[in-house]
Design goal:
Layout: E1 5-10, E2 25-31, E3 44-50, E4 56-63, H1 64-83, E5 97-103, E6 106-111, H2 119-132, H3 134-152
Antiparallel strand pairs: 1-2, 2-3, 3-4, 5-6
């Protein structure tokens, strides 16, 4: 175990979405990066699993800014799909760009992936999956919203 871990969430396997109580992800941590490719970053988020011998091993690690980028990307995608039903294909093939979000002097683009040959079918399945996951996503959105509101006062 990394002595540079500062925050830990044990028992994640109990609340891991539809895998709750069956997940192999045992804990989440925040601390100094452990993987060589992330050493330039000051903080990373780690996902831990049990190996075949029951020992905790690092399964994934993301620098903290990439975690935020994923949350921004996901949040903008969720907002997009709230109104996408108004478009016949759930997107405009002539304008696949949802938004270009300014970050770090550059842009985080959010686009419908028109390179996907099956996008017309896949976007419908994706929208249905978002709908099916509504209770899991909605609860987490409300928690995140509350926490972000508290951070505004920080």
């Amino acid at each position: 175990m990394n002595e540079k871990i500062v925050m830990v969430s044990k028992g994640y396997d109990r609340i891991d979405g539809r895998n709750g109580y069956r997940s192999d992800i045992k804990r989440l941590t925040l601390g100094a990066p452990m993987l060589e490719e992330n050493k330039k970053m000051q903080i990373a988020a780690q996902i831990w699993k049990n190996d075949n011998d029951g020992e905790l091993i690092l399964a994934q690690e993301l620098p903290i800014h990439q975690v935020f980028d994923l949350i921004i990307f996901l949040s903008r995608t969720l907002l997009y799909f709230k109104d996408a039903y108004r478009l016949p294909l759930l997107y405009d093939p002539e304008k696949p760009t949802v938004e270009r979000i300014g970050v770090q002097g550059g842009v985080l683009p959010v686009d419908v992936c028109t390179d996907n040959e099956n996008i017309n079918k896949d976007i419908k399945a994706f929208a249905q999956s978002l709908n099916d996951l509504g209770e899991l996503i909605g609860e987490r959105q409300r928690v995140l919203s509350r926490i972000l509101e508290e951070l505004e006062c920080y």
